[in-house]
């Protein structure tokens, strides 16, 4: 998907027929990211899928860097590669991570998933192309767009309300996770909390392999 | 001219990357030995066994590179590189002295350093999974659990310094540094150093490679050069952690005659911290896995949050 986006971005520039080095690099990294993403969802080897995901997420971080959004790029690496994928690998290794193919790990929802992915990609590409049709943003210019300073200012001046709303959402999710995991403990009969635990309907969710 | 400048900087970083971990390794040999009433290596190279690690390197290079039959070959072979290269990248961003003595000024330096350091742990995970060995898998699991627990206090402690300095750039933090930051940020410093030790899997946080329980954790099946690369990654990690603690909490190149001898101050503070790392290895018993998790979540995270609150309050008061 990002390759198409980058194509769209490139077509909006003045020099589409004579792209600069950065633009060529952007396209190549985009293709690599796309390839890694497709491999991640099509490979039959579970852990390989997670590792290809690392390549795809890292590729997106490189794209951010090329667009001079340095802060976002490092946050992408920190959160997705450093935390999410590690959590994913941890979960896989804790439950089932055979070396080699695992054909039973496939789901019958492939066509549906494909349809959803293609729809999402189409919508995103349409929106991005439509929004930035012929806009030319000079990344080399005087005011870099993606430095920490600029990002912080914009985030806490113009977007402070969505930012706070998101933080409340995350806090609610955190509290929910704690509640679910504590319920799981009570159900296993560790203490006299069983009465409260018995009322829970979502105990199955607490068995998600976190422990 | 510009290209030449960049090339020189990269060369200097590469040289530091090749030399400093070996110095720390040799120091560990000798310091551990003396603390345990031995003398350590004495023969290789003649003078107090200074060439012992070079000899070790030659030995590792001669060994056969074995890949277990059931292992996932490509992932197994890739893992040491994934473990080592992030530390090389991090070294680029660490300022050594004043007036631009840094490989590359990175705007969001703290984020870059912590993000890339976190990637290195993927190497252990890959090695642990791909070895097709239960001990390796257990080691990998412990590594992942440890990373997830200690990444948070590490980040929070670093964020406290960033708040104090008002910038995320490492040279920028040193520019803003004042001596009274050391007592002000001391809790953060302790949390950062402890969590960093845990992330490097150094004793007393070495449950992922606990040799008496799970052989050598994720590195059990590795031999020869690939094993040496994992060891090198550990020592490079010590250098990085100590240098980062120096830069963030101890004022980096600040000290008497900083304009001329700034780099010496950085090196000195880093080596003192590296000595402490070795000292801890000799003096503390290994923490059990549940103690490890408990320490991270019930001690380090609250302490780090307290430090952030303290930083915020002081920052508001002095403005």
UniProtKB/TrEMBL annotation, chain A:
- State the similarity comment: Belongs to the complex I subunit 6 family.
Localization, UniProt: Cell membrane
Stated name of the protein: NADH-quinone oxidoreductase subunit J
Q: What domain of life does the UniProt record list for this protein's source?
A: Bacteria
Purpose of the protein:
NDH-1 shuttles electrons from NADH, via FMN and iron-sulfur (Fe-S) centers, to quinones in the respiratory chain. Couples the redox reaction to proton translocation (for every two electrons transferred, four hydrogen ions are translocated across the cytoplasmic membrane), and thus conserves the redox energy in a proton gradient.
Q: Membrane-crossing residues?
A: 24-42, 49-67, 73-92, 112-132, 159-180
Enzyme kind, highest EC tier: translocase
Check the record and name the Gene3D superfamilies matching this protein. NADH-ubiquinone/plastoquinone oxidoreductase chain 6, subunit NuoJ
Major subcellular location class: membrane
Q: Which residues form a coiled coil?
A: none
- Give the Enzyme Commission number: 7.1.1.-
> Which GO cellular component terms, listed alphabetically, does the Swiss-Prot or TrEMBL entry include?
plasma membrane
Q: Name one GO molecular function term.
A: NADH dehydrogenase (ubiquinone) activity
Composition-biased stretches (Gly residues): 195-211
Annotated organism of origin = Streptomyces pini
Reaction(s) catalyzed by this protein?
A: a quinone + NADH + 5 H(+)(in) = a quinol + NAD(+) + 4 H(+)(out)
Chain intervals for the UniProt region annotation (Disordered): 189-211
Topology versus the membrane? Multi-pass membrane protein
Automatic annotation (TrEMBL), chain B:
Q: Per its record, what are the GO molecular function terms?
A: NADH dehydrogenase activity; oxidoreductase activity, acting on NAD(P)H, quinone or similar compound as acceptor; quinone binding
> What GO CC annotations are associated with the protein?
plasma membrane
This molecule's function is given as: NDH-1 shuttles electrons from NADH, via FMN and iron-sulfur (Fe-S) centers, to quinones in the respiratory chain. The immediate electron acceptor for the enzyme in this species is believed to be ubiquinone. Couples the redox reaction to proton translocation (for every two electrons transferred, four hydrogen ions are translocated across the cytoplasmic membrane), and thus conserves the redox energy in a proton gradient. This subunit may bind ubiquinone.
Enzyme class (EC, first level): translocase
Q: Which GO terms describe its biological process?
A: aerobic respiration
State what protein this is by name.
Answer: NADH-quinone oxidoreductase subunit H
Subunit structure comment from the entry: NDH-1 is composed of 14 different subunits. Subunits NuoA, H, J, K, L, M, N constitute the membrane sector of the complex.
TM stretches of this protein: 6-25, 78-96, 108-131, 152-174, 180-198, 227-250, 262-283, 295-318
Q: What is its EC number?
A: 7.1.1.-
Chief location category: membrane
Question: Where is this protein localized, as stated in its record?
Answer: Cell membrane; Membrane
Recorded catalytic reaction(s): these are: a quinone + NADH + 5 H(+)(in) = a quinol + NAD(+) + 4 H(+)(out)
Keyword list, A-Z: Cell membrane, Membrane, NAD, Quinone, Translocase, Transmembrane, Transmembrane helix, Ubiquinone
Task: Give the family this protein belongs to, as stated in its UniProt record.
Answer: Belongs to the complex I subunit 1 family.
Give any Pfam family that matches. NADHdh
Q: How does it sit in the membrane?
A: Multi-pass membrane protein
Species assigned in the record? Streptomyces pini
């Amino acid at each position: 998907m990002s390759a198409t986006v980058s194509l769209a971005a490139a077509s909006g520039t003045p020099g589409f027929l004579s792209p600069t080095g950065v633009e060529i690099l952007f396209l190549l990294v985009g293709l690599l990211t796309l390839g890694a993403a497709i491999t991640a969802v099509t490979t039959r080897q579970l852990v390989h899928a997670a590792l290809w995901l690392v390549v795809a997420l890292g590729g997106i971080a490189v794209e951010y860097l090329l667009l001079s959004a340095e802060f976002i790029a490092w946050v992408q690496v920190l959160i997705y590669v450093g935390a999410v994928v590690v959590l994913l690998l941890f979960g896989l290794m804790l439950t089932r991570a055979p070396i080699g193919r695992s054909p039973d790990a496939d789901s019958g929802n492939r066509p549906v998933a494909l349809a959803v992915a293609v729809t999402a990609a189409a919508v995103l590409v349409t929106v991005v192309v439509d929004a930035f049709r012929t806009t030319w943003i000079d990344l080399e210019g005087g005011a870099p767009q993606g430095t920490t300073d600029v990002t912080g200012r914009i985030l806490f001046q113009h977007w402070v309300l969505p930012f706070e709303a998101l933080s409340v959402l995350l806090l609610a999710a955190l509290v929910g996770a704690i509640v679910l995991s504590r319920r799981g403990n009570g159900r296993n009969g560790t203490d006299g909390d069983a009465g409260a635990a018995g009322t829970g309907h979502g105990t199955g969710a607490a068995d998600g392999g976190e422990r | 001219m510009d290209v030449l400048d960049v090339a020189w900087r990269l060369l200097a970083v590469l040289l530091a990357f090749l030399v400093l971990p070996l110095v720390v390794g040799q120091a560990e040999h000798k310091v551990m030995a003396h603390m345990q009433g031995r003398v350590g290596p004495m023969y290789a190279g003649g003078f107090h066994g200074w060439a012992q690690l070079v000899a070790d390197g030659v030995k590792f290079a001669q060994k056969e590179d074995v890949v277990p039959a059931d292992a996932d070959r490509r992932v197994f072979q890739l893992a040491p590189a994934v473990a080592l290269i992030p530390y090389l990248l991090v070294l680029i961003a660490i300022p050594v002295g004043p007036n631009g003595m840094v490989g590359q000024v990175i705007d969001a330096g703290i984020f870059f350093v912590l993000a890339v350091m976190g990637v290195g742990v993927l190497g252990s995970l890959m090695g642990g999974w791909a070895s097709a060995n239960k001990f390796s898998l257990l080691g990998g699991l412990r590594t992942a659990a440890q990373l997830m627990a200690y990444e948070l206090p590490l980040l929070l402690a670093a964020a406290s310094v960033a708040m104090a300095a008002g910038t995320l750039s490492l040279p920028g933090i040193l520019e803003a540094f004042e001596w009274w930051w050391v007592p002000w940020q001391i809790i953060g410093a302790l949390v950062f150093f402890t969590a960093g030790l845990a992330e490097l899997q150094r004793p007393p946080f070495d449950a992922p490679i606990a040799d008496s329980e799970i052989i050598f954790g994720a590195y059990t099946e590795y031999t020869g050069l690939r094993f040496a690369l994992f060891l090198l990654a550990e020592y490079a990690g010590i250098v990085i952690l100590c240098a980062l603690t120096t830069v963030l909490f101890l004022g980096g190149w600040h000290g008497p005659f900083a304009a001329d001898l700034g780099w010496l101050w950085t090196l000195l503070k880093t080596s003192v911290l590296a000595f402490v790392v070795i000292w801890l290895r000799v003096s503390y018993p290994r923490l059990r896995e549940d103690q490890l998790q408990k320490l991270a979540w019930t001690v380090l995270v609250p302490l780090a949050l307290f430090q952030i609150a303290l930083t915020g309050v002081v920052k508001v008061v002095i403005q």
